[in-house]
Amino acid sequence: MREWRTGWIAGLTRLARHLDERRAAAEREEEELEQAEEAVYGARRPAGGPPAPGGAAAAPAPGGTAPTVPAPPGYAPAVPARPEPAGAVPWGMRVAAEVGWRLLVLAATVWVLMKVISSITLVVLAFAAALLLTALLQPTVAWLRRAGVPRGLATAITFIAGLAGVGLAGWFVVWQVVENADNFSSSLQGGIAELKRWLLNSPFHVTEAQINNIADNLSEAVGTNTEQLTSAGLAGVTAVVEFLSGMLLAAFSTLFLLYDGRRIWHWVLKLFPAAARAGLSGAGPRAWRTLTSYVRGTVVIALIDAIFIGTGIWLLGVPLAVPLAVIIFLGSFVPLVGAVVSGALAVVVALVTDGPFLALMVLAVVLGVQQIEGHVLQPLILGRAVKVHPLGVVLAVTTGSMVAGIGGAVVAVPVVAVTNTVVGYLRRYSEETRLRAAGPDVHGPGPHGATGIEASDWARPGTGPGKPPAGA
Questions:
Q1: Is 421 within 8 Å of 286 (Cβ atoms)?
Q2: Residue 101 pLDDT level (bands cut at 50, 70, 90)
Q3: Transmembrane region positions (predicted)?
């Protein structure tokens, strides 16, 4: 037992001596490695301390000793940092993206606006008609005010006179249609017979059987689609009710705009930020002058078209000359398109009542008056008020008719003209404000004329945001 214990103790002693030798050897190897690093890099990194210059940080080895991975040499190439993602995108693509998302936001805004307008088309068109009527009647109110008539009485006189004029015109048209209905019916029957004879003798080689077949097909189509025609009639009744409602709303809006238009405008200005009121208060009167000039010029041109074309078709003996002249007058409120369409109606009436020759004569009268309007009247009367290219006018009329029908076509051009005036004034106002802030040495004397800052009511001395001009 004693011998076994003595042998076990001797074995443990030899194992401990062996472990001490291994530990001493490891320490010698580590010391030699550190000496080699010091000889190569000229600096020794203490155990657990910061890395040597130019080296990479590493976690200390277990036991608190320094890692055995040497730091990179000083002549190693530097690795460039990765650029920012936005900097890696080409400049042109970044500009296109910036423009693109702004266009998307603008398109979404316009789409939402169109949806809102289409849902309240009656209200929008009635208010637009009220603005046009106010622009037409407001000079009369101003003239009566200058003559010493009180504002309420001047508004009432102008409004009642305007309603009376519209009512008399409508009554006159209905009276003329009723008075000439019998003559028109006989003329229509005779015209259809004349048209039939002309087709039979024309070089188109139309036979009487073909004409009778067309008449039978028309009669059959009318009989087959009776339900659709009835539905269309009910829709027409609904349209008449909506039209009367719109007229009533437009009349009330016109009355209040004539009486209290200035206060309404100042209330609208207060809805905008204070910094924007000075520019808008200058753009508003200019937009109103543009609208007033447009309405006056359009009325004058429509009267000239109606008088000359109506006189021409009356001298040629076309039935319903006076109602056709009134339709031409109303159609002329749609620039470049309305007078042509209403004139085409006169040509059709002449064709079915008096034959192709008279229709060609009426067409010559309509085209002649249209040429005078396009080359003389439009530039002379509306040239200064509506500074819009004819292509812009056609596109505006087409867009307005697609959005809101005939009413949209009527108000499209004045909307474009007013927008053009407002945008042009605000651009000049912003530029002159910037130059004024830069100092008089930059651009010489301060703003002057129609685009000067002092032309704005809200920029005059003693006024400011939230303070209407004197006499408002």
A1: yes
A2: very high
A3: 123-144, 156-178, 234-259, 294-316, 322-351, 358-382, 402-426
Q: Are 302 and 332 in contact (CB under 8 A)?
A: yes
110-138 residue pLDDT tens? 889 888 887 888 888 888 888 888 888 88
Q: Residues near 40 by Cβ (< 8 Å), separated by ≥ 6?
A: 70
Contacts of 290 (CB under 8 A, 6+ apart): 385, 386, 417, 418, 421
Residue 453 — pLDDT band, cuts 50, 70, 90? very low
Q: At what angle do helices 226-270 and 208-224 cross, to 10 degrees?
A: 70
Q: What is the dihedral of CA 426, 432, 438, 444, to 10 degrees?
A: 170
CB 277 within 8 A of CB 469: no
Angle among Cα 358, 359, 364 to the nearest 5 degrees reads 95
The CA-based dihedral angle spanning residues 31, 37, 38, 41, taken in that order and rounded to the nearest 10 degrees: -170
Nearest residue to 396 via CA among 384, 414, 422, 382: 414
CA distance 300 to 295: 9
Q: Can you read off the two tokens belonging to residue 129? A: 């008609």
Tokens of 344: 């085409």
Q: Which long-range contacts (CB under 8 A, 24 or more apart) does 433-440 make?
A: 433/279
239 alpha-carbon distance from chain centroid: 27
Instruction: Encode pLDDT of 239-279 as tens digits.
Output: 677 778 888 888 888 888 888 888 888 888 888 888 888 88
Residues 6+ apart with CB under 8 A from 37: 44, 45, 52, 70
Enter the tokens of residue 329: 């007058």
Q: What angle do CA 453, 275, 471 make, to 5 degrees?
A: 60
Q: How far apart are CA 125 and CA 414, in angstroms?
A: 13
